[in-house]
From TrEMBL:
SUPFAM superfamilies linked to this entry: Acyl-CoA N-acyltransferases (Nat) (SSF55729)
UniProt organism field: Sphingobium chlorophenolicum L-1
PANTHER family given in the database record: LIPID II:GLYCINE GLYCYLTRANSFERASE
Pfam family, one: Acetyltransf_6
Superkingdom of origin organism: Bacteria
Protein's UniProt name: FemAB-related protein, PEP-CTERM system-associated
Domain BioF2-like acetyltransferase positions: 159-296
Length: 353
């Protein structure tokens, strides 16, 4: 497909030269995110089995002028879709020229039609063009600058929540570890799986976290809060162009009593500062959710996010936790014993994307 003088093609993500060129484009683009990077595409594909694609607009010079990362997410329960990016909170078309944006959107539509895939979901990026639906207000983003030092960071937290954080800081039984070793992955999965089960959500495959950590190298790590030797809170964080981005985090049931989640994110802000990060990007939450309220109470102002979708039939996947059908599934899931949830959860969650 042609876009002016540029051609839209599908990159070979197994080719080191093409991967490198795509990664360089993402890292140089002001709107690039970790979820546009080949590392994310391939890690998710390996960790969940959902095939990855990278559409690229290539100029006559051979230089990349635009990218659209995609995962073909398939599920017997939830249907299938092309998603940019799968298992991410951002993505979408990465291009500055409206003609390039339109060409990449058209190529994506053609890929969906050709593959018998009912819909496309873009989590961010510019408006793709006619025929695409805009979805805004259902999700909120939270980000603010990292303060100059620990004391300034503490004072940036509103008074009520700051009091809870001070209790955690005074608890000598809590300690923090940061790393990328197998023991950090094991502790993270133990905590995260319990956390999402308690929220009524199937846990992702353990391989997804391992593959992301491996693919991103020094651009990702795990912070664990322990009470003695017991992991009580943990988070896997991505680092991208000056932004610390805690992504998969949670705490066990005891985390609320211990205020270990407060301690976890406060220590992560200091860790991010030490790494040279300038912004703490708390990620997205559903509007009206307890998570959104918690982040706001931590001193983060919500910003509505915009997503886009396209469907050949007008139908979309039902993966909205607020829908009545989904709520029934959540209520059932919360009652499952943790070993059972961890056994069957990954098979379900790999189709959510």
């Amino acid at each position: 497909m042609m876009a002016g003088e540029s051609m839209v093609t599908s990159l070979d993500l197994t080719d080191p030269a093409q991967r490198s060129a795509a990664d360089a484009f993402v890292m140089a683009h002001a709107d690039g995110t970790p979820f546009h990077r080949p590392a994310w595409l391939t890690a998710v594909a390996r960790g969940t089995g959902n095939r990855a694609h990278m559409l690229a607009a290539v100029a006559p010079s051979g230089q990349i002028a635009g990218l659209l990362p995609l995962h073909h997410v398939k599920s017997a329960l939830f249907g299938q879709a092309l998603v940019s990016s799968g298992f991410a909170v951002d993505g979408g078309i990465l291009a500055s020229d409206p003609a390039i944006v339109a060409a990449l959107a058209a190529a994506c539509e053609g890929m969906a039609r050709g593959g018998g895939i009912g819909s496309v979901e873009l989590r961010g990026g510019p408006v793709p063009g006619e025929g695409w639906a805009l979805h805004e207000g259902s999700h909120l983003g939270f980000a603010r600058p990292i303060a100059d030092d620990d004391e300034a960071e503490l004072l940036a937290v509103p008074r009520k929540h700051r009091a809870e954080l001070r209790k955690a800081l005074a608890n000598d039984a809590l300690r923090v570890e940061i790393g990328r070793e197998a023991r950090h992955l094991k502790a993270h999965y133990r905590v995260y799986s319990e956390s999402v089960r308690n929220l009524g959500t199937p846990v992702f495959p353990a391989g997804l976290f391992r593959e992301v950590l491996t693919a991103f190298g020094e651009d990702a790590d795990i912070l664990v809060v322990l009470e003695g030797d017991r992991p009580v809170s943990a988070v896997l964080t991505l680092y991208h162009q000056g932004r610390a981005m805690p992504f998969w985090g949670g705490g066990i049931a005891d985390a609320r009593r211990l205020r270990s989640n407060e301690l976890m994110y406060y220590r992560l802000m200091g860790h991010g500062r030490a790494l040279g990060m300038r912004v703490f990007d708390f990620g997205r939450s559903k509007a009206g959710s307890g998570q959104a309220a918690w982040k706001k109470s931590f001193g983060f102002d919500p910003v509505p996010l915009s997503y886009h979708s396209w469907s050949a039939t007008g139908e979309r996947r039902d993966i909205n936790p607020n829908s009545p059908q989904y709520q029934r599934r959540i209520d059932i899931w919360k009652k499952l014993p943790l070993p059972v949830a961890n056994l069957i959860g990954p098979f379900i969650a790999r189709g959510l994307g």
